[in-house]
Automatic annotation (TrEMBL):
Annotated InterPro entries: ABC3_permease_C, Macrolide_Exporter_MacB
Membrane-topology annotation of the record: Multi-pass membrane protein
Record domain ABC3 transporter permease C-terminal: where: 331-449
Superkingdom of source: Bacteria
Family named by the database record: Belongs to the ABC-4 integral membrane protein family.
Provenance organism: Allokutzneria oryzae
Record has Transmembrane helix as a keyword: yes
Keyword annotations from UniProtKB, A to Z: Cell membrane, Membrane, Transmembrane, Transmembrane helix
Listed name of the protein: FtsX-like permease family protein
One Pfam family it belongs to: FtsX
Localization (cell): Cell membrane
Length: 455
């Protein structure tokens, strides 16, 4: 550190100690402005994290490649073989299942949420059949058969997993435990339900009889946990594919031709219980996709209907987040300007009182540059101290808000105070100190030496 800079800081610190009340007044006027900047920056980071968390749970983490697979009798078998022992690759297959009394209309036709907030009074309709072709285009037709009476049964959107989907979609456990993917498969399928389904099991007595479309026999499942999957608008359940496949018919030994005009798909699964099938891949796992394409093509599947999409949610919503930050940052800047005006006012008054002191310093050889540095050092130190106080208040407020909102917004509870907000507070405090002290510093540097003669 140069001698002049060190002298400026030392004399500036002495000036702050000598005028504690004025320094405190300057800090009070600046505190709210810096706190507003810190709050806006922290709020922007929290909003971005919350939006990303919702997208990650419903779609997947940024950079994840989602590969949609064609409908074919051999798709499940080929996918399991291709993913065996692979890291960073998970296969999911959706189907429908009903848990509870047989031959009744479920409480939530269409696997609607059983939470009244999302599913109304267990609304939905099961009076339609859905058929989908290999490209994923689906059509619905009204059913003509008589609707059975309502009973103690819940319709579930069942997701069969080959691998742990949470590495791509970070579901949050609410109670119980997640699927144990390393243990031997059980003949009693272990399932994890989401909040939309858990509400129904909480409020109704449901027999433990699981019926899956295309299954050979009904099974007795074990509900081992409740998970927040960000999809409370539907009743979802998650199960190991090998445990559910114990109750499904074995795939045909001879590959069937591609189903380009058939009715397999979501809502109508033929004799296999098959629904939409996807594979989640981490970046750099292109070899898995190429293997799947080659083996499915050899089996006769319509690989032209396969398509891959890379999730890039952060880039898509960056413009929205930046616009929101700019609007609130503009409002915070107005508050900060009030603090700058306070520093400027106090600084001009202080220079007016110290005219003789500055003139005397000039008379004994102090340069104009050093005088400017002395005044700026005082205002910059004031701005820095104010920034530290505002950051401390912001961190305390963040912890209080996190504890109060943790039940409704788990994302906040998992976050720590954003370091970007602290950096923004320091920059705001120093900029305010510079702007507020520049005019008083220039005025102090222009004080003539002759002024000391009037002292």
């Amino acid at each position: 550190m140069s001698g002049k800079l060190r002298s400026s800081l030392i004399i500036g610190g002495q000036g702050i100690r000598a005028r504690k009340l004025r320094t405190l007044l300057s800090m009070v006027s600046l505190f709210l402005g810096v706190l507003a900047v810190v709050t806006v920056q922290a709020g922007g980071q929290v909003a971005e994290r919350a939006m990303l968390a919702d997208i990650e749970m419903s779609q997947g983490r940024d950079g994840t490649a989602v590969l949609s697979l064609p409908q074919h009798d051999q798709t499940s078998v080929i996918t399991k073989e291709a993913l065996r022992g692979k890291q960073g690759a998970v296969a999911v297959e959706t189907t429908t299942a009903t848990l509870g009394e047989p031959n009744v209309t479920p409480l939530n036709p269409g696997a609607m949420s059983l939470n009244p907030k999302y599913g109304g009074s267990y609304g939905g309709s099961s009076r339609y059949t859905y058929t989908c072709d290999a490209s994923g285009a689906c059509t619905s037709k009204p059913r003509t058969d008589k609707e059975p009476p309502k009973g103690a049964a819940i319709e579930l959107r069942m997701t069969k997993l080959v691998g742990d989907i949470r590495q791509f979609r970070p579901y949050r456990m609410v109670s119980g435990q997640w699927l144990d993917l390393d243990s031997a498969p059980s003949l009693s399928p272990r399932i994890v339900v989401n909040l939309g389904a858990a509400e129904g099991f909480k409020n109704n007595r449901i027999p433990a009889e699981l019926r899956v479309e295309g299954a050979l026999k009904n099974s007795t499942p074990q509900i081992i946990g409740v998970v927040d999957d960000g999809q409370e608008y539907s009743a979802n359940a998650y199960v190991r594919a090998d445990e559910l496949d114990n109750w499904m018919p074995a795939p045909a030994a001879t590959p069937a031709p591609a189903n380009k005009t058939g009715t397999s798909g979501m809502g109508s699964y033929g004799n296999s219980g098959r629904g939409s099938q996807m594979v989640y891949l981490t970046p750099g796992n292109d070899g898995v996709e190429q293997t799947l394409r080659a083996r499915l093509a050899a089996a006769g599947a319509d690989v032209e209907s396969m398509h891959s999409q890379v999730i890039n949610a952060k880039k898509r919503m960056a413009s929205q987040i930046n616009l929101m930050k700019m609007i609130f940052l503009g409002m915070a800047s107005l508050v900060l300007l009030i603090g700058v005006a306070g520093i400027l006012n106090v600084g001009l008054a202080t220079v007016g009182e110290r005219v003789e002191e500055f003139a005397l310093r000039r008379a004994v050889g102090t340069s104009r540059m050093l005088l400017t540095g002395i005044v700026l050092a005082e205002t910059l130190l004031t701005g820095l101290l104010t920034a530290l106080a505002a950051i401390g208040a912001g961190m305390l407020g963040f912890e209080v808000a996190a504890s109060m909102l943790s039940s409704r917004m788990p994302t906040i509870a998992e976050m720590s105070f954003p370091w970007e907000a602290g950096m923004a507070g320091v920059v705001a405090g120093l900029v305010a100190g510079l702007l507020g002290g520049l005019i008083p510093a220039l005025r102090a540097a222009r004080i003539p030496i002759s002024t000391v003669m009037r002292a």
